[in-house]
């Protein structure tokens, strides 16, 4: 039985609208409904994995109506969004008891998930913009959820920069519509193939790189991330850093460059430059941080740089007409790193939330020696840190290895050297985290801390287990062919993919 | 030519959002940018000497369910108008959130000046 | 929030009904003339905003308290989602205009035509009206005392940063 695609957007929206109407006494019901919605989304995402189909909303045929498309790339990201979302929702069942307005939080969280699902499944550029805005506005409100000084300042900064980025994206969409006369991605691809790039379309592409690059926190546009991610409540930081910057930023940019505009060498080099800049700047700036979540935020910038570097490398190799195998390997490395980073960065943010809830502080100078008092948190944090730093056999090692091999085979030795240097930086920063938070002396005022309880433990342990088993995704060839390779093939097919999918 | 003026309005909004120090002025700059993009979208659909895309009695042949060719030749493109309607709703929601955060920040910090609201550093 | 003078109060109590009626007209005729759910909802909300400015926030709160407006908001959104899901159940595709295709085609240019589009307009009008009323109401609830804020600013500039 194939699931109709709008269900992925309809379930979180309907539950989000029902929740504020439940009164004060029905708060456990509200939490239960929200968890049920997320778990059902995860089950549906796993069930529809691997299909490739198009759904015409309202029965209107394609150039007249909006369509939703599920292919390899979309289903990979859908799985990542729903998995991290379920873990974050389980975590927040217990964590959000310290805030007062919990039903509003659940509504905003479900709206954000609905927006992200819509971005990933949309086959129409303007529909992508509408869902991008739904997810962004929900996340602006969630970042400032606590209502304290720093959270409001971070939320304002994020909101101003995010609104400017969305306006750039809308301007780009207007330029694309003016030049091609259609809003459907397949029709636009065919029109651009027929007429070629002119000045308007090139300007539109640069506006898209700026707008989506700001949503993805690439380096010239990263200024909002180190303030917004620490100030948000921990499960929201996990969602923001784990999936929002990837679904809104990297997915949209990759989809537009590969499947709509077509690859070209200048675009590839721009992506490689942005990727290397983000990797190096994020890595170096993270080492000097003493706030736990701020360090994790800078490390997010660095890891997103890896993903964009992999995708840029694939773009350049495809555009030059060089061997498709190395382009495929580079894109595989980038996408595997994207999925890995979703899982372990969200796990790291969840453990930081557990530490903050138990001890009340995020400053690493005031922490120390929590290894005996909080053993499960310490173990999961160690698993996540080892993966992100690239220790074999955890999945982070394999994705970085694939990127290095692809760079060396393509002949860009300096890119490979940069990847290895930033990996060493990442190892340093996570050794710092482990030393200052978990090892060392336990200060006097922290003698009474207790381990995280209940649903928080379930969420963290399940993400840690997923983290350990994800290396099998690339080591076992059957799993790789079923899960990762369809996503890579969608991107390699390029402009022909969208026209083939709707039988143009 | 009109498109260039639209782009000039967009740049004015961007300048205001980037340079000004008062929070409310930054919000106004963002609103002006969004207006400029909406104006650009509507102007894309314009056809010289066109009329509004609203059907009335003589344009429709009910029996065959077709629309007269004269109507199709004289009417402006209605699709950008639908896009702009959606975009106005989105910017309304975003503006409401921005203003409420400005007000809450004022009650906490006591000022609208962004150079004094700088607790997060590093 | 206090009200305004007697002239404003009298005139606005005559005019509020006309504005509300105009808003309902724009929503109902949304499929025949420009307007529709969003524009009509904004006009509905603006009649309440006029009342808030003329009579003060407390009297409007007695008339339409925040909890009822919030429930109306959720009801409007839920009705819209219900129409979409009914399209899936009855017609076979999400959002399909099942009333037009199967049950009630209606005459062109009449009020009862267009299938589920007028129903969607009603749901959206209800939701947007309630939402905008709530937004303006909640924003007007912020009370700040300018003297105490000036003192706080002074102490923050001269004293040590509070951590």
Question: What's a concise summary of this model?
Answer:
The complex is a heterotrimer of chains A (504), B (122) and C (163). Chain A is mainly alpha-helical. In chain A, 75% of the residues lie in helices and 2% in strands.
Task: Based on the model shown, name its key terms.
heterotrimer; B: 122 residues; mainly alpha; Helix Hairpins; two-stranded antiparallel sheet; 4 helices; elongated; C: 163 residues; 7 helices; disordered C terminus
Molecular structure report:
The complex is a heterotrimer of chains A (about 500), B (about 120) and C (about 160). With about 500 residues, chain A is mostly helical. Chain A has a domain of about 190 residues. Helices cover about 75% and strands about 0% of the residues of chain A. Chain A has 20 helices and two strands. In chain A, helix 3 packs antiparallel against helix 10, helix 4 runs parallel beside helix 10 and helix 13 runs antiparallel to helix 14. The mean pLDDT of chain A is about 85. Chain B is mainly alpha-helical and about 120 residues long. Chain B has one domain: Helix Hairpins. Chain B contains four helices and two strands, in the order H-H-E-E-H-H. In chain B, helix 2 runs antiparallel to helix 4. The longest helix of chain B has about 30 residues. Chain B starts with a helix and ends in a 13-residue tail after the last helix. Chain C is mainly α. Chain C has one domain. In chain C, helix 1 runs antiparallel to helix 2 and helix 2 packs parallel to helix 6. The radius of gyration of chain C is 22 Å and the shape is elongated. The C terminus of chain C is likely disordered. Chains in contact: A-B, A-C, B-C. At the A-B interface, helix 5, helix 6 and helix 9 of A face helix 1, helix 2 and helix 4 of B.
């Amino acid at each position: 039985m194939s699931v109709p695609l709008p269900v992925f957007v309809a379930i979180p929206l309907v539950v989000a609208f029902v929740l504020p109407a439940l009164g004060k006494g029905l708060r456990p019901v509200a939490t239960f409904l929200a968890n049920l919605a997320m778990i059902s989304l995860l089950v549906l995402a796993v069930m529809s994995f691997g299909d490739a189909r198009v759904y015409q909303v309202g029965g209107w045929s394609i150039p007249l109506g909006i369509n939703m498309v599920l292919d390899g790339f979309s289903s990979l990201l859908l799985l990542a969004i729903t998995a991290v979302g379920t873990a974050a929702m389980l975590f927040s069942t217990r964590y959000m008891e310290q805030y007062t307005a919990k039903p509003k939080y659940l509504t905003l969280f479900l709206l954000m998930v609905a927006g992200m699902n819509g971005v990933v499944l949309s086959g129409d550029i303007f529909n992508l913009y509408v869902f991008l805005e739904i997810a962004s506005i929900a996340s602006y409100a969630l970042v400032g959820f606590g209502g304290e000084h720093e959270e409001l300042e971070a939320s304002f900064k994020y909101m101003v920069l995010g609104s400017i980025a969305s306006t750039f994206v809308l301007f780009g969409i207007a330029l694309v519509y003016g030049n091609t006369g259609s809003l459907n991605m397949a029709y636009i691809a065919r029109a651009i193939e027929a007429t070629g790039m002119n000045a308007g379309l090139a300007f539109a592409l640069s506006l898209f790189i700026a707008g989506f690059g700001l949503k993805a926190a690439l380096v010239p546009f990263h200024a909002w991330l180190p303030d917004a991610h620490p100030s948000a409540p921990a499960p929201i930081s996990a969602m923001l850093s784990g999936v929002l910057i990837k679904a809104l930023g990297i997915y949209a940019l990759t989809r537009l460059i590969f499947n709509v505009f077509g690859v070209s060498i200048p675009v590839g080099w721009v992506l490689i430059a942005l990727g290397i800049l983000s990797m190096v700047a994020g890595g170096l700036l993270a080492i000097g941080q003493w706030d736990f979540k701020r360090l994790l935020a800078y490390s997010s910038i660095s890891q997103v740089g890896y993903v964009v570097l992999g995708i840029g490398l694939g773009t350049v190799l495809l555009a030059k007409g060089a061997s498709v195998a190395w382009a495929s390997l580079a894109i595989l490395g980038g996408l595997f790193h994207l999925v890995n980073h979703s899982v372990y960065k969200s796990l790291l943010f969840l453990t930081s939330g557990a530490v903050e809830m138990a001890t009340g502080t995020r400053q690493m100078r005031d922490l120390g020696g929590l290894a005996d008092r909080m053993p499960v948190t310490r173990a999961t944090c160690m698993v996540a840190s080892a993966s992100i730093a690239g220790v074999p056999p955890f999945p982070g090692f394999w994705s970085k290895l694939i990127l290095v091999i692809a760079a060396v085979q393509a002949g860009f030795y300096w890119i490979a050297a940069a990847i290895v240097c930033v990996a060493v930086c990442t190892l340093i920063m996570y050794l710092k985290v482990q030393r200052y938070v978990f090892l060392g002396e336990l200060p006097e005022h922290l003698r009474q801390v207790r381990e995280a309880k209940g649903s928080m433990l379930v969420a963290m342990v399940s993400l840690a287990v997923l983290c350990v088993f994800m290396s099998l995704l690339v080591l076992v060839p059957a799993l790789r062919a079923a899960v990762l390779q369809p996503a890579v093939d969608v991107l390699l097919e390029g402009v022909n993919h969208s026209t083939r999918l709707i039988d143009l | 030519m009109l498109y260039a003026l639209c782009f000039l309005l967009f740049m004015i909004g961007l300048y205001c959002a980037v340079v000004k120090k008062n929070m409310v002025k930054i919000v106004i700059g963002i609103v002006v940018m969004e207006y400029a993009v909406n104006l650009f979208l509507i102007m894309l659909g314009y056809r010289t000497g066109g009329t509004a895309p609203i059907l009335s009695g003589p344009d429709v042949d009910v029996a065959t369910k077709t629309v007269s060719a004269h109507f199709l030749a004289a009417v402006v493109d209605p699709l950008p108008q639908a896009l702009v309607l959606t975009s106005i709703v989105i910017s309304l929601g975003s503006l409401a959130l921005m203003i409420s955060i400005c007000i809450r920040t004022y009650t906490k910090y006591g000022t609208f000046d962004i150079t004094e609201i700088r607790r997060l550093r590093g | 929030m206090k009200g305004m003078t007697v002239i404003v109060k009298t005139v606005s109590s005559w005019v509020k009904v006309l504005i509300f009626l105009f808003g309902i007209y724009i929503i109902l005729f949304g499929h025949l003339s420009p307007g529709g759910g969003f524009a009509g909802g904004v006009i509905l909300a603006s009649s309440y905003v006029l009342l808030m400015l003329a009579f003060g926030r407390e009297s409007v709160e007695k008339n339409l308290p925040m909890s009822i407006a919030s429930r109306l908001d959720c009801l409007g959104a839920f009705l819209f989602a219900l129409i979409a899901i009914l399209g899936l159940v009855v017609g076979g595709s999400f959002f399909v205009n099942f009333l037009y295709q199967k049950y009630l085609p209606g005459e062109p240019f009449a009020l009862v035509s267009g299938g589920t589009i007028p129903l969607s307009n009603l749901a959206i009008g209800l939701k947007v009206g309630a939402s905008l009323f709530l937004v303006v109401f909640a924003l007007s609830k912020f009370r700040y005392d300018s003297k105490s804020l000036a003192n706080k600013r002074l102490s923050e500039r001269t004293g040590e940063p509070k951590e």
